[in-house]
Amino acid sequence: MNTKEMQDEIKRIKKEKDMLILAHAYQSQDILEVADYMGDSYGLSVQASKTHHQNVVMCGVRFMAETVKILSPNKHVYLANRYTGCPMAQQMTKEDVLMLKEKYPEYAVVAYINTTSELKTVVDMVVTSSSAVRILKKMPQKDILFIPDPNLGSWVAKQLPEKNIKTFQGGCPTHWRISKKDVERARKEHPHAEILVHPECKPEVTALADYAGSTTGIMKYAKESDKKEFVIGTENSIVQHLQFDCPDKKFYCLSVECVCHNMRQTTLVDVYNTITGKEQEEILLPEDIMQKAKIAIDRMVEAGK
Ligand code: 13P
Ligand code: SF4
Q1: How far is the CA of 17 from the centre of ligand 2 (A)?
Q2: Containing H/E element for 10?
Q3: CA nearest 28: which of 70, 65, 69, 59?
Q4: Ligand 1 center from residue 193 Cα (angstroms)
Q5: Pair 124, 295: CB distance under 8 Å
Q6: Which mutation among 40, 134, 261 tests ligand 1's pocket best, with the greatest number of atoms within 8 A of CB?
Q7: In the chain, N or C terminus with fewer CB closer than 10 Å?
Q8: Which residues cross the membrane (predicted)?
Q9: Is 209 in the pocket of ligand 2 (CB under 6 A)?
Q10: 3-state secondary structure of 185
């Protein structure tokens, strides 16, 4: 079977089996072409909260599939490739959060969506990169513990000086690979280009960029801009997608090192195997974890509107 034949089969079977395919923006082009929806972590959560399909296949990483399951507990949710974890989601446990809450009882705890479902059972709010500023602004609490990504946390804090946001150690190992030197080199090599980065990048990188936003925020900005050249500071798949969508513009990687090996693990064959039932990883979570984690995730979907 070649790529086109496999894609046609996936499209045929997903209709037959009432399956919805969700793909994060970092997935490969051949997967995006069979997906019903492509988006950032917030967009994927919104889709999950309103789907009518009985079966959902997530092409992304595990916490994304778990979020879908929590938002749609009565659906069958599958992770297209069982080995795709997010290293950032493993950086803090529920026990770590409980310890922080004891130390800072007067603070509200806000967790980035890139965390485990168990951790989400003890936090006040969940946010994504595209919804964090909007949601924190609406929260009545001034004092906030932002976990686990200090880069995203300090980017949010800069935009909300009225809040007292405390961050901790952690972050995305993929975006940490981008340095200030990469930005300086890109400015020299592409003097007419705009530099667009993800807020998971280090603060000194984000400070020198022309725009910082979520994966789909970056894509939207580049598509709508009158500029013709862009240097992209997020997972390098976004460079390929933008080049594909905007053939009259030029896109460059801010760092060739910005590759998420977890996101890149999922292949079209994994999607095919999941949808045909040849190899499936169904997401099953304990009932009490789903119910408790749903409270903070529902708050995010509602407050993010
Ligand atoms: P967003 O798509 O929400 O910007 O998240 C980026 C990311 O690193 C997902 O793991
Ligand atoms: Fe996790 Fe970073 Fe990969 Fe996103 S890009 S899945 S945050 S390691």
Answers
A1: 30
A2: helix 3-16
A3: 59
A4: 23
A5: no
A6: 40
A7: C
A8: none
A9: no
A10: helix
Instruction: State both tokens at 155.
Output: 């980017």
- pLDDT, tens digit, for every residue of 107-131? 999 999 999 999 999 999 999 999 9
Instruction: List Cβ neighbours of 256 (8 Å cut-off, separation of 6 or more).
Output: 236
Per-residue model confidence as pLDDT tens digits over 15-24 = 999 999 999 9
Residue 45 pLDDT greater than 90, yes or no: no
Which H or E element spans position 24? strand 19-24
- Closest atom of ligand 1 relative to the 41 alpha carbon: 3
Q: For the chain, which domains are there?
A: 3-85+263-284 (3.40.50.10800), 88-171 (3.40.50.10800), 178-253 (3.40.50.10800)
Ligand 2 close to Cβ of residue 174 (< 6 A): yes
pTM here is 0.95
Q: What torsion, rounded to 10 degrees, do the Cα atoms 115, 120, 107, 149 define?
A: 10
The pLDDT value given to residue 81: 98
Partners of 143 in the beta sheet? Answer: 164
Q: Which amino acid is at 195?
A: I
